[in-house]
TrEMBL record:
PANTHER family xrefs: FOSFOMYCIN RESISTANCE PROTEIN FOSX, LYASE, PUTATIVE-RELATED-RELATED
Protein name, as recorded: VOC domain-containing protein
InterPro entries: Fosfomycin_Res_Enzymes, Glyas_Bleomycin-R_OHBP_Dase, Glyas_Fos-R_dOase_dom, VOC_core
Keywords of the record: Metal-binding
A family per Pfam: Glyoxalase
Recorded GO MF terms: metal ion binding
Domain VOC: 1-127
Length: 127
């Protein structure tokens, strides 16, 4: 079981606004909150987002480099995936692999794929 994951972000306020409704929809709640970071928790696991120091912002994140490729979250149902897809589109968040949505992960894999503000790919998967 993962205890927690910490992710450095380029703009904490932008990331916080982006993730807050997603985590609320998925059943997470704010766990820690301080000037340079915030975390959301579900059960014993939590995700932390921390403001990157200015002197480390020169090279942006890209999921195809060495490191994290994407985060995948479990939805409660296909309907929840559909509802979240609609909300993402209403917020102007592009859906990745739109031509294959909601089966971009393959037959029987019902999910929505999109990018967070720092271009971290996110997947929300139906059971």
């Amino acid at each position: 079981m993962i205890h927690h994951v910490e992710i450095n972000v380029s703009d904490l306020q932008t990331s916080r606004a982006f993730w807050d409704w997603i985590f609320q929809e998925l059943g997470y709640s704010v766990y820690q909150d301080w000037d340079q970071g915030v975390s959301w928790r579900s059960g014993a696991t939590y995700l932390v987002f921390v403001q990157t120091e200015a002197n480390y912002l020169d090279i942006p994140y890209h999921r195809k480099r060495v490191g994290l490729n994407h985060l995948a979250f479990q939805a409660n149902s296909k309907e929840q995936v559909d509802r979240m897809t609609k909300h993402l589109e209403e917020r102007g968040v592009p859906i990745l692999y739109k031509d294959r949505h909601p089966y971009a992960g393959g037959p029987g894999h019902y999910a929505v794929f999109f990018e967070a503000p720092d271009r971290i790919k996110v997947e929300i998967v139906a059971p």
